[in-house]
Amino acid sequence: MATIKLPAVLVGGSSTSEVEVAGETVRELFENHADEHGPELRDSVVEDGEIKEFINVYVEGTPVDGLDADVPDDAQVRVIPAASGGR
């Protein structure tokens, strides 16, 4: 199983959390996570069948271009919303 590292802003907590989820692609990870934990994460990351514009997903430290990216067994997946603001 892969481990998804989730920032607090996406899961409504006060710190980053980790959860193990089965799946061979990024899409399967988010769908399986939704089945087990509810749709909030998937809905925060995916829109119209694509990763949202201001969300970055990394598999083993490599940015992925889409939901069909392969996820090796025991991979670490990070979901990071883009930061904005400031002057």
Can you put this structure into words, describing what you see?
This protein has 87 residues and is an alpha+beta fold. The protein has one domain: Beta-grasp domain (Ubiquitin-like (UB roll)), CATH 3.10.20. It is 25% helix and 31% strand. It is built from 3 helices and 7 strands. The strands form 2 sheets. A 5-stranded mixed beta sheet has the order 2-1-7-5-6. It has a two-stranded antiparallel ribbon with strand order 3-4. A hairpin with a 2-residue loop joins β5 and β6. It is globular.
Q: Concise description?
A:
This protein has 87 residues and is α+β, with helices and mostly antiparallel strands. It has helices at 8-11, 26-37, 40-45, and strands spanning 2-6, 17-21, 46-47, 50-51, 55-59, 62-63, 76-81. It is 25% helix and 31% strand.
Question: Can you write the helix and strand succession as a string?
Answer: EHEHHEEEEE
- Give the strand tally: 7
- Order of adjacent strands in the largest pleated sheet: 2-1-7-5-6
The radius of gyration computed from the alpha-carbon positions, rounded to a whole number of angstroms, is 12 Å
Helical content stands at 25-40%
**Span between termini:** 41 Å
Report the CATH topology name. Answer: Ubiquitin-like (UB roll)
CATH fourth-tier homologous superfamily: Beta-grasp domain
Structural class: alpha+beta
Give average pLDDT, whole number: 89
Count of helical stretches: 3
List low-pLDDT spans. Answer: none
User: Could you say which overall geometry the principal axes of the C-alpha atoms support?
Assistant: globular
CATH class: Alpha Beta
The proportion of residues in beta strands is 25-35%
The biggest sheet amounts to: 5 strands, mixed
CATH architecture: Roll
User: What is the domain total for the residues?
Assistant: 1
